[in-house]
Amino acid sequence: MDCFWKIEPLKDSSEFNHRLLVKLNLSLSDSTEFVEVCADNFLIRNPQCHRLDTSDVGIENKLEFTVWQIPGLPYLDKIGPVYIWYHRELSPQEIINNPNIPRQINFNYEWRGECKCGDVHLKADKNNWNVLYSPDHPENYCPSMSCSWLLEAPEGYYIVVNISEFYTEADHDFLALFDGNDTNQKHMEMLSGMITFKNTIHSTKNIMAILFNSDISIQMGGFAIWYRAVKNDELLQNQQSTELSSDNSSSPHRLFLFMFFTLFAVIGILFIIARSNPTNNRFTTIENIFRRIFPTAWTRMFNENEEEEEGGGEGRNQVKNNFIQNL
């Protein structure tokens, strides 16, 4: 069995550049089945095609094609149709086991002008994560863009945002997040540059406003913002878990820093003491250092050998010799 669909390009659009987004959901079961989507005729040599088979069953496949159209110049019109081909071969094993295995393929498509912000109002689902991409993602966003979006959760829920990708021109292109729909208030976050996020961002209301602005100069890869609706108790639980994880992960670093600065301070003290006694011999300098750092131990050592020192200083010399040998 072979089925073909043809998606015709827009003819009355004034946009210079277009992008066609095709989303497919498949239900295939045999290894000989596949769906092929091509940006040109199947009969031409090396068409731009994407093939989906049984390994892609159960997931939504989003395919994207960029096409061009120059208004007013039909002879320069380079836009062409997109073809979808479903192919299925008859399997002898299938006839023996189950001749009526159901198959399903459904798809939808959208023509979208390049450098468009997309839908302004986005619903946050309480069961699944949705994603907001920067315009023209995964390509670089366009210059001189000004986009706004409203993420809305059901009543009694809040918005949680997880930014998995973020790369804009530092200090020139900005993304701002607001708690609620008032963009004149102080923002929750103002982001620019290349940032890796370890924590989520959450609102205290069921609406979060997002603004994105780019200048005319340099464009980067943009962003991917995943968002979902959560209840207040779930939000607090996630916050506590994140804070606990953060505290546990920072404890080894704190211990390392404490030991490093302690060692650095000891070395500094030894250096100062040594420099303050430049004319003394090696043992005298070490003796002074030991005396100043461990005065109690040195006093006890001196008292134990006081009698020997009075008898000729042999005990004190023995202490010196033992101390030097241990260095």
Describe, in plain words, how this protein is organized in 3D.
The structure is a single chain. This protein is of the alpha+beta class. It has three domains: 1-114, Jelly Rolls (Sandwich); 116-255, Spermadhesin, CUB domain (Jelly Rolls, Sandwich), CATH 2.60.120.290; 277-325, no CATH class. Helix content is 27%, strand content 32%. It has helices at 92-97, 232-275, 282-293, 295-304, 306-310, 314-325, and strands at 2-7, 17-27, 34-38, 49-52, 60-68, 82-87, 104-113, 121-123, 130-133, 146-152, 157-167, 174-179, 189-191, 201-202, 207-213, 222-231. The strands form four sheets. The chain has a five-stranded mixed beta sheet with strand order 8-10-15-12-13, with no helix packed on it. A four-stranded antiparallel beta sheet has the order 1-6-3-4, with no helix packed on it. The protein has a four-stranded antiparallel beta sheet with strand order 9-16-11-14. Helix 3 packs across helix 4 (295-304). The longest helix has 44 residues, at 232-275. The radius of gyration is 36 Å and the shape is elongated.
List keywords for this structure.
Jelly Rolls, 32% strand, elongated, five-stranded mixed β-sheet, 327 residues, transmembrane, single chain, Sperma_CUB_dom_sf, alpha+beta, 3 domains, transmembrane helix, four-stranded antiparallel β-sheet, CUB_dom
Major sheet details: 5 strands, mixed
* Cross-sheet strand order for the largest sheet: 8-10-15-12-13
Q: What is the CATH topology classification name of the largest domain? A: Jelly Rolls
How far apart, in Å, are the first and last alpha carbons? 88 Å
Cα shape: elongated
Question: What is the count of β-strands?
Answer: 16
CATH second-level architecture of the largest domain = Sandwich
Could you tell me the mean pLDDT? Answer: 74
> In DSSP terms, counting alpha (H) and pi (I) runs of 4 or more, how many helices?
6
Q: Which consecutive residue ranges, at least 5 long each, have pLDDT under 50?
A: 67-77, 241-246
Strand content: 25-35%
Supply the CATH class of the largest domain. Answer: Mainly Beta
Helix content: 25-40%
CATH superfamily of the largest domain: Spermadhesin, CUB domain
Structural class call reads alpha+beta
Series of H and E elements: EEEEEEHEEEEEEEEEEHHHHH
| Count of the domains | 3
Cα Rg: 36 Å
